[in-house]
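name: query_chain
kind: protein
chains: 1
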Amino acid sequence: MPCTEGEHPRAACCVCPYNPIEVNLKVKKKMKIGELAQRTGVAASAIRFYEKQGLLGAANRAANGYRIYDEYTVQRLNILRMVQKLGFSLDMIRNVILQDGACSKARTVEQINIRLEEIDQLEASLAAQRAELQDLRRVLEESIRSGIDLSCTDATSTAATAPVYQTSQRHHEMNVR
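structure:
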């Protein structure tokens, strides 16, 4: 028996027009692309792109042709955003999605291992860059302290930083005499 306004014996279970909880749940179950974009922080154009790429299932259509989405799509977009933030490319994501739209755990582990390997390579590259930048900074700071004029070419040839500095210092000493 439906409730009357203000009367909800079992508010959480009551299905009637006066129950705001149920009404809100119904509204949130189906949404247009604009609301989906707002709820997920993903642009409408990106949502349409993900659909076209097969990363989201095709949206249902309302009678007027508007795309209609459900809560599952919200969850799916949140997952897509999260894995992209972790550095997974769309191709990597596509590789873990099965024909029925579910994710393959085995493929996901495979892709995680590939991504971890990429991160290890990036860390090694960044460590090498850090060391080179620290060497360059050291050479330039020493040049500033000593007053020895190094050209940018001399200073940036970090492969032979010490010899360049020593050569420039000798050149400076010869010009002072």
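note: The beta strands are 60-61, 67-68.
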